[in-house]
Amino acid sequence: MRFYFSLLLFVMAGLVVAFAPLPVQSIAPQERTFRINARQYAYSPSEIHVNPGDTVTFELVSTDVVHGLYVDGYGVSVEADPGQTATLTFTANKPGSFRFRCNVTCGAMHPFMIGKLTVGTNDWLYRAIGLALLAAISVFPLSSLFNRNRKKEVL
Amino acid sequence: MKHSELISRILIATVVLLTVATPLYIWKRTPLIHAQMSEAGGWTPGILKANAGEPLHLRFTSDDVIHGFAVGQLDMDSIDIEPGKVTDITLIFDKPGIYTFFCTRWCGVNHWRMRGTIEVSGSDPEPTPASVPLYVTLDVDIDAPHESPAVPDRQPSAIRGWELAQGLDMAALADPELYKSSSPYQIFQQLENTSHSDAEKWDMVAYSWQFNTTSEQLASGRQLYAQNCAACHGETGAGDGVFADDIADAGEASMESMSGAMASMMQSPANFTDPKRMLGASPAILQGKILRGGMGTGMPMWGSIFKEEQIWDLVAYLYSFQFEYEE
Amino acid sequence: MNRIELTRNRFLKNILVNRYPQLAVFMVMLVGYIFAILAGLIGTPVGSHNFSIVFVWIAWWAVLILVAVPFFGRGWCAICPIPLPGEWLQRGAVLAPPDKKPMWLNLRWPKALRNIWLQNISFLLLALFSSVLLTTPNITGIVLAVMLFGAIGLSTIFERRAFCRFLCPVGGFIGIYSQIAPIELRIKEKQVCASCIGKPCYNGSAAGYGCPWDVFPGGLTKNTYCGLCMECIRTCPHDNIAVSLRPFSADLAKPSTRMDEAFKAFIMFGSAMIYAGVLLGPWGFLKDAAYNVGTGAWFVYVLAFLVLIFGVLPGTFSLGFLSTKNPIPFKQRFASLSTSLIPLGLMFWVAFSLSFVMTNASYIMAALSDPLGLGWNLFGTADAVWQPMLTTILAPAQTLSLVGGLIWSARTAQKAANEVQVSSLPLIAYSFIATVIMLWLLL
Question: Phi and psi at residue B62, in whole multiples of 5°?
Answer without folding.
Answer: -105, 140
